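Most newcomers find our protein records easier to grasp once they have seen one. Sequence and backbone structure share a record, each on its own labelled line. Nothing more is needed to start thinking about how sequence determines fold. As an example, a complete record with its sequence and its structure tokens follows.
=====
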Amino acid sequence: MQLIKKIFVFSRIFLFLIPILIISIVLTKLPSNGVEISSIEFIGEATLPKGLIFENTEVGGLSGITYNSKNNLYYAISDDRGQKAATHLYTLKIDLSKGLLEKGGIIPVSVTTLLNEKGKKFTSGETDTEGIALTNKATVFISSEGNAEKLINPFIKEFSLSSGREIVTLPIPNKFLPDKTSQKGIRNNLAFESLTITPDNKHLFTATENALIQDGVAAKPNIGSPCRILQYNLLNNQSEKEFLYQTDPVAPFLNLIGKFASGLPDLLALDNQGHFLSLERSFTGLGFAISLFQVSLEEADDIHNIDSLLAVDSKNIKPVKKKLLLDLRKLDVLLDNIEGLTLGPKLPDGQQSLIIISDNNFNSLQRTQILAFKMKIENPLIKLLRRFIPNFNL
């Protein structure tokens, strides 16, 4: 009898340990702290007045945005090339306290003029600032597309938020730099629009908006473009990896004027394991096509040793994985030239907010538009448990 009891007890312990063992195995296979967006919901739109003048600058050209959770403020970079004011960024308040974005919910707070390493303003035409990412040191990294036609190199620089002065310049790999032959490097106005830093502040990512000249064609109607994602190690400020990102082909719509543009204007790191949101923006002839994708670098090939994708069999290169999260054309909103995105604060219901912003090109027919979303972000383990336990909540 005692033997039977021991066997029974042992069996119960064994059955109890099996799920723990399975979960442990699953945990070893899953990336630590990896996240996935399970849902996204539009929660409002706001615009700034056209021609708004604030602290002697015309507010416009807002191409990138980043969020400071410590003071609930946003920093937005203007791509004014020094034609209206010296290179600068804005500090903004965006009110999401009610769990939505209402008209009038955007308030400019201040303007910070950016200064070079000598403490001087950048000269007109020297910069085309497009991307911005906040560090944990009261500084921001800012990317500039440069000007390939004038052989002005793109840059990624770190600036002090208090003084606006340049602190660090990251080295740009030679393959990205334009040259006199126009046979390699960035295409004009299709360079480093995006910029993001991982939550642990160890890595910075940027990407070309379209292919390098030696990598393939720029986006055309119904044809995507092979972009490069560039990864920097912020512990030594060196570039270390590159990945292939293929933009989706987009069809023009009633394109009577014959103008078409499409590309990758921003990335947003969701975790430290290579999971991102990406923003693809196209001008289709009649309005804009804007899409949000979930992106993973997990199985993508590192191509930093490949100087030209056209010189190799690129069919054997594994690009980053993409999954369409939202086609913004399905919203009941007239879309403008969306170029930047950032995570915002947690909303009153505990869900994560997302902010995207448009560049009005200082055009009277366009708007500085901000759209807000509510996202549900889950760890893969939690998602797995929901499959087996439908009412599981954490």
Notes: Residues 2-29 form the longest helix (28 residues). Confidence is low (pLDDT under 50) at residues 20-32.
